[in-house]
Specification:
Layout (H helix, E strand, L loop, with lengths): L1 E5 L4 H12 L3 E5 L8 H7 L4 E2 L3 H7 L3 E4 L8 H8 L4 E2 L1 H9 L4 E4 L6 H14 L5 E3 L15 E4 L1
Parallel strand pairs: 1-2, 1-4, 2-3, 4-5, 6-8, 7-8
Helix pairs in contact: 3-4
Amino acid sequence: MKVYLIGIGGIGMCGVAGILKESGFEVYGSEKKIPYPPSSLILKKLNIPLYKPDSENIKKIKPDAVIVGNIAKSDDQEVLISQSLGIPLYSFPSFLDKFILKDKKVFLCAGTHGKTTVTALLSYTLEYLGFDPTYLVGGVLKQNSTIEKEKEILRL
């Protein structure tokens, strides 16, 4: 399945792109500005093509789904062309729920402060206890994550 991410340069969308790539999806994305590290390094390491926003990208790639980042507005040219071509649009949480998390146990950290820290501690603890979780964090951790291990997943 081909997936195109609008606003792939943010750490959250970049993390989603990595999980999708590791899960076997064909991943592409666009970003208005060249992403800074760590996003730029992650996208390069995973060999995920990065485009400048342009409706021609959608026509050329012909994705099966488009994940729309919070940065995109309703008049975004890639959003509009996707709609006109009948390509389903998703937020990244809704895409993950539909295609990745449906058969997984999910732990969710929410709140105003400390989500990244708590998620890091939980993921480390689960690994220490012998589990093999995947985690999506709005920050950079020293641990690595992959998706197709167990049925456990830690999501932020």
